[in-house]
Specification:
This protein has helices spanning 2-17, 69-77; strands at 28-34, 37-43, 49-52, 56-59. It is globular. Helices cover 30% and strands 27% of the residues. By secondary structure, it is an alpha+beta fold. β1 (28-34) and β2 (37-43) form a beta hairpin. The strands form 2 sheets. Strands 1-2 form a two-stranded antiparallel sheet. Strands 3-4 form a two-stranded antiparallel sheet. The protein starts with a helix and ends in a 5-residue tail after the last helix.
């Protein structure tokens, strides 16, 4: 349910911004903790990292950069050439 709520919220925000100039580098990162479960999402070049005891970092979201082959393919599919 929380996963669906995050997805619905991000999609609604995206739909509101389509066609509007929001500037380069617009990003979104959201983390919700319910009980012992962590839900996270990111759009653009932002990310969430959980700092753990002993200096261990745990990535909660993937990096959305054009250096990632999957993200580059998605960007090119949207019509933004490199």
């Amino acid at each position: 349910m929380a996963e669906d709520a995050l997805k619905t919220t991000v999609e609604a925000m995206d739909n509101q911004l389509v066609g509007q100039y929001v500037g380069e580098g617009s990003t979104l990162c959201a983390v919700t903790i319910i009980g012992a479960t962590i839900y996270s999402t990111n759009v653009g070049d932002s990310r969430a990292v959980l700092a753990r005891k002993g200096g261990i970092a745990l990535d909660l979201t993937p990096n959305h950069t054009p250096y990632d082959p999957i993200e580059r393919a998605r960007i090119e599919k949207e019509g933004f050439p490199f």
